[in-house]
Amino acid sequence: MEVKKDSLKAWILAARPKTLSGAAVPVMIGLALAWSDSHDYEGDVFSWPAAILCLLFAFIMQIDANFVNDFIDFARGTDDRATRLGPERACAQGWVSPDSMKHAIAATTCLACLVGLPLVFFGGLEMIFVGALCVLFCFLYTTHLSYMGLGDVLVLVFFGLVPVCITYYIQLHTIPLYTVVTSLACGLVIDALLLVNNFRDRDTDRNAGKITLVVRIGPRPTLALYLGIGITACLLGLVLGFRGYWLAFLLPLIYLVFHFFTYLKMKTIWEGRDLNRCLGETARNILFYGLLLSLGLILHSFITFV
Prior knowledge:
Distance between the termini: 52 Å
Number of helices: 16
Structural class: mainly alpha
Oligomer: single chain
Largest sheet: none
Order of helices and strands: HHHHHHHHHHHHHHHH
Radius of gyration: 19 Å
Strand content: under 5%
């Protein structure tokens, strides 16, 4: 691929736009839950400016994390052009200079803080603590925690619990149990993306001393885990059904069909660059899950209150 150094195209590729669905889905689910529950309150309690700020913060933090990952892996020599199986990376390919990437990391980190700061007016001073944790673990993930096999835990926390629950809290100033359970289901669905990535890179990660969950448990248990987390996420949706949001439980079952076929494809391909197709399909499946769950919540609200 011909990419001019430090060009707009280079920066778009470095931002990894396909990963932004993983940032959008948890916030989307948190907003759909809050919007549906806001009908139980008197007056107009749902804030659209806060909703937009939550989405923007999630997008910018995801881009920031991608820049950090690109730079750190290049500096450590993890992204080897000859052995890399995943999508090409900006620093390793020479599309973006390391110095430019360092400046971009500083800029996106500051921008995320500026965008997130007004959320204090909607969610209280505790939002500063939440934002600081997001920034801290954005760096710790690539520098330390992913090498210790803790990446999957961080996905559950920062692509499940934190974005779904905090987005809900900013709107309604409470976090009910069914929101926590739904956030865990969301985290599991998004963790499927990390599992595919690490399944593909299991040999190179082992050689680089990166002890991911896949390296620890092996490829066959990983495939079973991949299938299992999709099933578990959908079963956790029963908590919404018991609350009366049956469409929010039933519609995501469509996602499970796509998830199953991606699992079969992983099982057939097994190794190599062709697994990048499964990575793309998993990202698509995550978006389907988020859209179907959110649609179920919104349709329930229209059927009940309109």
